[in-house]
Design the sequence.
């Protein structure tokens, strides 16, 4: 059994017992009440599974040493913009307030200002600290508000103080890493058109002794932002963009940052991600950061923030909560009734093909589709007998491919005979689970910015076979969450939420025919392997999104009809296809998948950390 799979289902009981306190017990009971016993047990396993690479030692090795920080302090930028950091403060504990301010004072980039809007002017301890720092460092400024105006208006008051070219948002009890602003300005120097920037983050205990739950983010991901406020901290935007966006809105309190981020990115030429952990989100009993079963109003506000964004962008979509509060589903209704051409290559495998076709015909609610079966040198009499039976169905057409097997060429041949505006590539060894799978895929694929849509594929033993692909995984590309129980949601629920990815498998993939034609279809030099990854990468290069949609689900036997890669010819062909990918997609293989994160493993499918020098690697 693989290391990946051997960890599934285990709980690190020692770590869980260390976390026990009246607060965590109360929190656990809230989870139990919300999810019910079965779902609670699943989430308990997810929360306390052993970390393959423990974050504590990893983080200690990750943080820059003093020599590196000193080099950053001496660095000279060609353009050193003033960065304003806006902080809405209210009843901030003195120690937290000092530590927050000190995290700015410690910055290796010096051209910043700290703008604090004090919503508790009657708090003498806060006033004393603010006055002390303002006298010591002219970059620290504060304004006493007449009263607490709420999180949105307090933040707007801090934003109004900002004079910088860019403005970042910092909560009053959180911390910036000392290299945070330096890394942001480095990114701005490389990307002069950037109007918004965000970084990775982690959580830190109240006493700052333990860093945990790193949030290692992808580059800008529209569908992920519609599923969850993954950008969150540290977020900065050009001041002119903030002025256009209009600041914070009190009607979205609880999700005011999600609403604000949407409006900023909508008005940005380019959104840049800095894949470094530069923000530390302090969690304590007074914070909602570590208590997702509290304050339903915040999740309702998040739902409304997404709905408002969809309305502004002219996008039809129905937003709903998922079982994981703070994560959302957007269902895109089908516009009209366009034809979908389902293309299925087949050689022999009568039973698999029959199960596939029966599931499509019996479980698919959408009706305007055709099925094109491409016969590729079958030898069994039973398959030809079955083909004759199928000829009675006017929606099914049979084409013959008489040359040797070439997945790309066969599918390109099928597309040339397709009548649909949308193409649905389907393996002969998949069967439908969700009845609305085709409408689900079609609704997403119809969006003008989308070129291709993939689905969640599940093995017959109810474990995941495919939940999107990451380029570079295992060398060239690999599926995520393979072998994880299908009822699990994975790292930050990524197995179960809509998001953009660099690639999805063509075992079940929908594409606009216009986009397929535009990018030149499947590359026929890739006869067996990586042809779907290559097609998706060409789709992304042409400016379209490739979307992983977990709400469309199918069973998959996986490559049942192809056989093992065990002959000399097959091994040689596989090596040739690897070299094709390396030569044609060297940039993404070298620089990393933009929808993944450089700090995540390329040998593990579960978003575990990539080991750093000096940290413990998986055994």
Sequence:
């Amino acid at each position: 059994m693989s290391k990946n799979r051997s960890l599934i289902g285990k709980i690190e009981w020692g770590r869980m017992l260390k976390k026990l306190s009246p607060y965590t017990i109360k929190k656990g009971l809230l989870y139990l009440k919300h999810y019910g016993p079965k779902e609670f047990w699943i989430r308990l396993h997810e929360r306390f599974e052993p970390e393959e690479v423990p974050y504590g030692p990893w983080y200690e090795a990750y943080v820059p040493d003093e020599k590196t920080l000193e080099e950053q302090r001496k660095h000279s930028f060609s353009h050193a913009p003033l960065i304003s950091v806006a902080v809405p403060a209210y009843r901030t504990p003195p120690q937290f307030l000092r530590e927050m301010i000190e995290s700015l004072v410690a910055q290796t980039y010096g051209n910043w200002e700290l703008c604090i809007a004090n919503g508790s002017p009657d708090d003498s301890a806060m006033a004393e600290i603010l006055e002390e720092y303002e006298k010591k460092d002219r970059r620290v400024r504060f304004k006493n508000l007449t009263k607490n105006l709420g999180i949105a208006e307090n933040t707007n008051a801090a934003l109004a103080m900002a004079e910088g070219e860019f403005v970042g948002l910092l909560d009053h009890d959180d911390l910036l890493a000392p290299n945070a602003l330096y890394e942001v300005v480095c990114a701005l120097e490389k990307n002069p058109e950037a109007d918004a920037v965000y970084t990775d983050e982690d959580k830190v205990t109240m006493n700052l002794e333990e860093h945990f739950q790193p949030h290692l983010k992808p580059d800008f991901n529209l569908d992920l932002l519609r599923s969850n406020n993954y950008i969150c901290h540290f977020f900065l935007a050009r001041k002119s963009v903030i002025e256009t966006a209009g600041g914070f809105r009190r009607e979205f309190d609880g999700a005011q940052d999600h609403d604000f981020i949407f409006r900023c990115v909508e008005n940005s030429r380019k959104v840049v991600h800095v894949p470094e952990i530069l923000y530390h989100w302090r969690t304590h009993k007074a914070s909602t950061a570590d208590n997702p079963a509290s304050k339903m109003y915040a999740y309702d506000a998040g739902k409304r923030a997404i709905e408002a964004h969809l309305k502004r962008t002219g996008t039809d979509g129905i937003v709903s909560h998922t079982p994981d509060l703070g994560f959302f589903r957007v269902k895109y209704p089908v516009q009209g009734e366009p034809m979908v051409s389902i293309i299925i290559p087949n050689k022999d495998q009568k039973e698999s093909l029959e199960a596939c076709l029966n599931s499509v015909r019996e479980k698919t609610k959408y009706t305007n589709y055709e099925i094109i079966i491409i016969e590729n040198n079958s030898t069994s009499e039973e398959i030809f007998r079955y083909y004759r039976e199928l000829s009675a169905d006017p929606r099914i057409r049979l084409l013959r491919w008489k040359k040797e097997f070439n997945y790309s060429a066969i599918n390109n041949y099928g597309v040339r005979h397709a009548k649909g505006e949308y193409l649905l590539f389907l393996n002969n060894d998949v069967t439908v689970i969700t009845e609305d799978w085709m409408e689900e895929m079609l609704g997403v694929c119809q969006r003008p910015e989308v070129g291709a849509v993939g689905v969640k594929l599940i093995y017959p033993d109810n474990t995941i076979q495919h939940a999107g692909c990451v380029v570079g995984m295992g060398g060239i590309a690999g599926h995520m969450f393979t072998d994880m129980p299908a009822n699990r949601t994975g790292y930050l629920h990524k197995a179960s939420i809509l998001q953009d990815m660099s690639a999805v498998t063509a075992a079940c993939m929908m594409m606009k025919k216009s986009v397929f034609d535009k990018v030149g279809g499947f590359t026929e030099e890739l006869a067996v392997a990586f042809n779907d990854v290559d097609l998706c990468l060409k789709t992304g290069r042409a400016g379209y999104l490739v979307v992983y949609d977990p709400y469309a689900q199918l069973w998959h036997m996986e490559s049942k009809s192809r056989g093992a890669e065990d002959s000399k010819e097959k091994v040689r062909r596989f090596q040739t296809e690897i070299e094709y990918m390396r030569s044609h997609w060297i940039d993404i293989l070298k620089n990393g998948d933009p929808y993944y994160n450089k700090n995540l493993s390329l040998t593990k499918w579960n978003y575990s950390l990539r080991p750093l020098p000096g940290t413990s690697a998986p055994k």
In short: The chain has 21 helices and 23 strands. The chain has three domains: 3-50, 79-285+293-329, 340-591. Residues 1-9, 41-48, 560-564 have pLDDT under 50 and may be disordered.
